[in-house]
Amino acid sequence: MIAITINGKQLEVAADPDMPLLWVIRDLLGLTGTKFGCGVAQCGACTVHLNGEAVRSCVTKVSRAAGQQVTTIEGLSKLNDHALQIAWAELDVPQCGYCQSGQLMSAAVLLRENPNPTDQDIDDAMSGNICRCGTYPRIRLAIHKAAELQREGAKS
Amino acid sequence: MNRRNFIQSGALLSGGLLISFTILKANKLAALADTADLNVFAPNAFLNIGTDNSISVYLSHVEMGQGIWTTLPMLIADELDVDLKKINIKHGGADKAFNHVIYGAQITGGSSTTWSEFDRYRNAGATARTLLLQTAATRSGIAVESCKTEDGFVIAGSKRYTYGELANDAAKLPVPAKVPLRSPADWKYIGKGSKRMDARVKTDGTAKFGLDIQFPGLLTAVVAHAPVFGGKVKSFDAGKAKAVPGVREVVQIPTGVAVIADHFWAAQQGRKALQITWAHGAGVQLNTGIQTAAYRKLAASDGLLVQEKGDVKAAFTKAVKTISAEYVFPYLAHAPMEPLNCTVKIENDSCEIWTGTQLPGGEQAAAAKILGFKPEQVKVNIPFLGGGFGRRATPACDFVSEAVHIAKASGRPVKMVWTREDDMKSGFYRPFYVHNVKIGVDKDGLPIVWNHNIAGQSIMADAAVLFGPPPAIDDTTVEGVKGSPYLDEIPNHFVGLHTTKEVVPVLWYRSVGGTHTAFVMETLIDQLAHDAGIDPVEYRRGLFKNHSRHLAALNLVAEKGNWNRTLAPGRFKGIAVHEAFGSVVAIIAEVSVEKGVTKVHQVDCAIECGLAVNPDGVKAQMESGIIFSISMAMYGELTFVNGELQQNNFYDYRITRMYEAPRINVYIVDSKEKMGGAGECAVPPTAPAVTNAIFAATGKRIYNLPIVNNRLEKQA
């Protein structure tokens, strides 16, 4: 059994230590908001936070998360009210929506570390996340918008 | 229509008012026919008003990012006079009632949802509103003309009824053959738009895609496919695979060997442990280099007549100058972000499927055939689609059929999951094409003769299961050259087609023929303009003198995008215009080429699409198509060596990333023209606008895509 804390809940999972965290989250714990896109850390659809850092869960062994804190999209906020989530809906960012969990999880780390990111900062932080629908221009605007909301005191 | 059945099924479903609607006569591939004259009644259900005041709208088309989850309910909200936010939205599932009003089969494609459903969905809403008004009139004793609706209520004198209160009685009224539609002045949503109705569920992980289907007892399957198209399993040893913890079963199916396990990871480990000997078949002869040479030879001769005018041979003797060009376009994979997958549960006399599909009826029929069932014994559930781009509209029903075979062979409910590599290597690609063009110009630099041949596989031949055997000329290969406004102005021209056959299955790819025909036409016109010493916008204006929609899009982008602006040092611009799916899109791309690397900095886009029902949705689709086209132009390429695909995943099949995404400005022509599409329409002109800008930057014309295969040096 491997003990991990997911979205604040302490759990024990019966998994091979080599099993990628992605499949533990999706197939063993039933949290399907984290997506499978490439399996080789190329697309970012599986991005989660491991002790607050964005990691690609498809290549992160569950053993690495043992005793650690994992946050998935389901845990980004309680009421879908993270500044990024509000900005995403406000600017109609999602299209097919499949990559957006990963985009949001990457953006959340950026915004926490850098509350006032420039376009260049956004390019640097977000280029590991592919969106096949091409929502990048709106993601860029939404991150700026979320930074603004955060400055105005929105929940983050 | 059978009114009694309709009422009964309506009552059964909802205990309320289930609205039938005018279904327009199916007329296969009569693209863009005027839908207004094709009235035939059939029972159906687009709209359901419950006695509990709930309003549900059933979508005949599927949401794959293009925004119809918002646009179709908007049409009903305006006619029914309700708040869009109060509508429950659902995919309709496989049902003939949801067949495309033009294409016949149930299909989401061809950038057609909004224009094709504009009348049907408004009529569904208007029919309900009419019946609710009549019911309120009867109940209150006030003349129907004196009753009115107001945001989910019928006001009859001093009475104010909710729609739910009226629903059961309204359902008993005969459905009028024709109902009045509301005046555009009353529209709250149409033409003004709405925020996406699916945005919130797509930000907190609750939106369900096919891959997210889970229920007790469901197992996961992955499949080992032949490494070469047409290959078969000769023999296999599943011993080591079955020893992997979590693996439950290994079964052979027509397309390979499936490993079924408790979860994806065990199934994947099991597949790695399989030992399979393959019989490759004739597919091993496929080599991209050899194919290129063969197609170039073919395209150098005149093919089957597509379109001709005047005397091409004689005209070349009169030309003051001739130019020749040969273009090569690679196979392309759609690569939607959600890899293809399908969940199947078979009971004794029924089957349930969950999958993201653009062709629900086709999948239903394919599953029924495999199982020996009638189509109605197969229920198709459609979650959100994690991208489609055409790949989830495969008439061969490849991925659903495979999943059904696994469930049938194993007797277990299974979710078949393809890895990215499986998805990349599964075929049904945008075909490989070669174009060969010879043009003769007069003393003013205007084309007087144009000879154009195209070689490539027929998409419609691979779609025959749905649409029947294709004609000798497959329009999906030649559209965009055939019917080009430029050719209209060229007195002598010939367009020919060489249809080839390959072991690689092919399919429509976002914007279909426009992915290559627009590139050829728009880069050649740019070349002619440059050779004539005429500004490329002016040159096109001359050729578009009889094409007002092309002119409108071109003029708007030239004005708003400020074509004559002074660019920063190192920046260059290119333009292109193309009509597809009933709309015209004009693009200005601004690029730089530094140390041979192209970057697209800004794209200005104008679309002439008639009425833009949801303007911000149209803008989003322009942004999407532009970035899709940049991926295609810059990097898109699949190659074969001895039948084996060389690309695997996003590291060797690159997609545009955030740091490469340009600033995009979209302008919509204020238009009274016939409504066209949006989803695919920005793809065709973007790629040639980019390479025309590359020419401006480097003096080099690009005849082979992708761009990264071309050596580009910055002009000295």
UniProtKB/TrEMBL annotation, chain A:
Stored CDD domains: fer2
2Fe-2S ferredoxin-type domain boundaries: 1-76
Keyword annotations from UniProtKB, A to Z: 2Fe-2S, Iron, Iron-sulfur, Metal-binding, Oxidoreductase
InterPro entries noted in UniProt: 2Fe-2S-bd, 2Fe-2S-bd_dom_sf, 2Fe-2S_ferredoxin-like_sf, 2Fe-2S_ferredoxin-type, 2Fe2S_fd_BS, Beta-grasp_dom_sf, Diverse_Oxidoreductases
GO molecular function: 2 iron, 2 sulfur cluster binding; metal ion binding; oxidoreductase activity
Top-rank taxon, per record: Bacteria
Family matches, as PANTHER family: BLR6218 PROTEIN (PTHR44379:SF2), OXIDOREDUCTASE WITH IRON-SULFUR SUBUNIT (PTHR44379)
UniProt protein name: Isoquinoline 1-oxidoreductase, alpha subunit
TrEMBL record, chain B:
TM helices/strands, residue ranges: none
SMART domains: Ald_Xan_dh_C
InterPro entries per record: Ald_Oxase/Xan_DH_a/b (IPR000674), AldOxase/xan_DH_MoCoBD1 (IPR008274), AldOxase/xan_DH_MoCoBD2 (IPR046867), AldOxase/xan_DH_Mopterin-bd_sf (IPR037165), N-heterocyclic_Hydroxylase (IPR052516), OxRdtase_Mopterin-bd_su_IorB (IPR012368)
One term of GO molecular function: oxidoreductase activity
Domain Aldehyde oxidase/xanthine dehydrogenase a/b hammerhead span(s) in chain numbering: 204-282
Pfam families attached to this UniProt entry: MoCoBD_1 (PF02738), MoCoBD_2 (PF20256)
Record-given protein name: Isoquinoline 1-oxidoreductase, beta subunit
Protein source organism: Mucilaginibacter gossypii
Lineage summary: Bacteria, Pseudomonadati, Bacteroidota, Sphingobacteriia, Sphingobacteriales
